[in-house]
Amino acid sequence: MTPDKWAQWLLSRRDGDDADLRARHAADLAAFRDGVLDRAALAADDVLLDVGCGTGLIGFGALDRLGPDGRVVFSDISPDVLDVCRRTADGDGRCRFVVAPADDLAGIADASVDVVTTRSVLIYSERKADAFAEFFRVLRPGGRISLFEPVNGFAARLRPDDLFGTGDSPVNDLIAKVGDVYRGTTGEATRPMTDFDERDLLDWAVTAGFEAVELDYRAQIDVPAGPVGDWETLKRAAPNPLVPTYGEAVAAALTVDERERLDAYMTALVAAGTPTRRTMASAFLRARRPHRER
Ligand SMILES: C[S@@+](CC[C@H](N)C(=O)[O-])C[C@H]1O[C@@H](n2cnc3c(N)ncnc32)[C@H](O)[C@@H]1O
Question: pLDDT digit string (tens) for 268-293?
Fold first, then answer.
């Protein structure tokens, strides 16, 4: 059976099934994982719930930090990614697996976990405030949330047509047409990815009842980054699970002549090792459920 869109993206469409691209993502992913887990201030016997666990980036990172009495609850909306985690856990008795959306963590009892983590999950939820309320409900008094989310509205507003970080270039017109495919065909599906910012994250945490709310925001505009990487590989990759690959979007947007012009430009750019420019924003947030309710 074909895995669902979440598993497909995490397992292959994120990096076009390419080892080099996978390795390039791995460094960023490790930094996100460590940023979330460092802020979670784990104790060896904590019970940690990772919401939207995917293939287990945060959950297995947590297991490495917990002791023999610690436990990790892997939860996700996708049964297929939970199957991947179950296989990776390979019978480790400290793991439990729960299919649930972030905004309705049925199956997780009230006040039953010490830490809730989540990474790049709320961006897909239509009901982010409800998700914060659920995090609060399942945490024991004194329990912590630690999360990371990209703030995608930032780049969407500032650099809507700089899909590949190539900045001002002779193929601006073509890249804008490819961008139109993403905006046109996936606008409604991807709206939750751009309809919030760091202030909303703070508001939702406070409204849910959390205290000691701390947010670390990082914004980058046109900051030199790594080279594009192999263009044919990049075309097999998709920027997120809800949208076509870059190659599919190029095919839908451009005529044959236009495609040849884009391919020629991007291939030359890659051959020259030209650095890209990164425009993005993201936030780590941590907070605590009060020991005593106000
Ligand atoms: C970008 S992946 C991140 C996976 C993992 N947290 C990580 O850091 O690698 C997004 C994950 O969120 C899950 N997801 C999407 N919408 C969700 C929702 N409403 N509730 C819970 N999980 C969701 C997907 O199945 C996918 O595993």
Answer: 998 898 889 999 999 999 999 999 76
